[in-house]
Amino acid sequence: MEVWRENQFFALKKLLDFDVWLKPEWSSTVFGSRTKAKFSVAGSLSDPIIGRSTKDGSVVDLRQCQLHDPKIVGLTSELISIIKEYSLLPYDIQTKKGELKHIILQVGDDDSFMIRFVLRSKEAVSRLEKFARIAGPKFKVITANIQPEHSAVLEGEEEIVLSNNRFLPVSIGNQSLLLGPKSFVQTNLEIAGKLYQSASKWLDQTEGRFLDLFCGVGGFAAHLTKPSREVVGVELSSEAIESASTAITDASFIAMDAWEYVASSSPFDVVVVNPPRRGLGEDICQRLNQLAPNKILYSSCNPLTLKRDLENLNYDVEKIQAFEMFPMTEHWEVLCLLTLNRE
Q: Which pLDDT score, from 0 to 100, does residue 1 have?
């Protein structure tokens, strides 16, 4: 296993051929690192199955998946009991009948959970309201997501919060963040903490105006705020911005498309970017070249689009580091510190 992991890192270095690589941050364990689980639901009310959907529409049982945090594995039997007790009829892809399509779990602080039930309709909401009233503090956030479409889209637009709490406290690195129902957070909180702390360390002596583009719930922003800095976070998701604004009071956050924001923004001293797998794209790269911040901190989950974007940015790679965010896979999170090429 160790040889395989080293070979994956070697392949990454070959793709991103720079001589300023730092030692990678390895996950402390290849098992139990994922603190979020997305279970598809199938079977019958008397014998439900939770796991991963396959191409033929069946669901493979993942109750004992070793990639999941042990707290998630320990909860799976209770999930089966909840399905039965509250008559959450599993959705059948072939007949298009049933109510419960998915269960999404997120582990939070103090062994608490956010649990989201993805339903075909509102038929089961009243029964889930009864569950929410007696669920206790373990289930910090409970929601029903309504996904009426017969499609591969995991969740729908409508989210009904059934618990008294809307946000799940999640400690990452040395900061406490808040996670709302539709907000994204890295699945490996240990490595996410190391990622944010590296960012903080690399930029420790840098002051001025900071832009956190694609900020999500504010992981980078929370670790970069200082009294001497102005930090602005931009994210398209209004749910994520609500989470970030509630948790981080010494930064400002804007729900807006990344391109629309940078197209008209004033200059920043530092720009932090953490785009989705598609990367920044040529338009944003060229606009960043025009804005010419002194430094860009680029966090990427896709080395291929990172390589393309680095070729479009008028910046030199000062340092680069790999983070084993996704053990047992070929995927990496890569952090680059870029310095403006003034030639």
A: 65
Q: What is the pTM of this model?
A: 0.92
Q: Residues 184-191: what's their mean pLDDT? A: 91
Report if residue 120 sits inside a domain.
yes
DSSP state of 156: -
Instruction: Supply the CATH number for residue 23's domain.
Output: 3.40.50.150
Find out whether 232 and 209 touch, Cβ atoms under 8 Å.
Answer: yes
C-alpha 111 chain-centroid distance? 19
SS3 string, 102-146, reads EEEEEECHHHCEEEEEEECCCCCHHHHHHHHHHCCCCEEEEEEEE
| Cα-Cα-Cα-Cα dihedral sign, residues 109, 111, 112, 117 | positive
Domain containing 204 equals 2-30+188-340
Boundary of a domain, candidates 165, 198, 222: 165
Q: Exposed, middle or buried by CB within 10 Å (0-12, 13-18, 19+), for 266?
A: exposed
Which residue numbers are catalytic?
A: 301
Q: What pLDDT shows up at residue 83?
A: 98
55 and 153 both lie in a single domain: yes
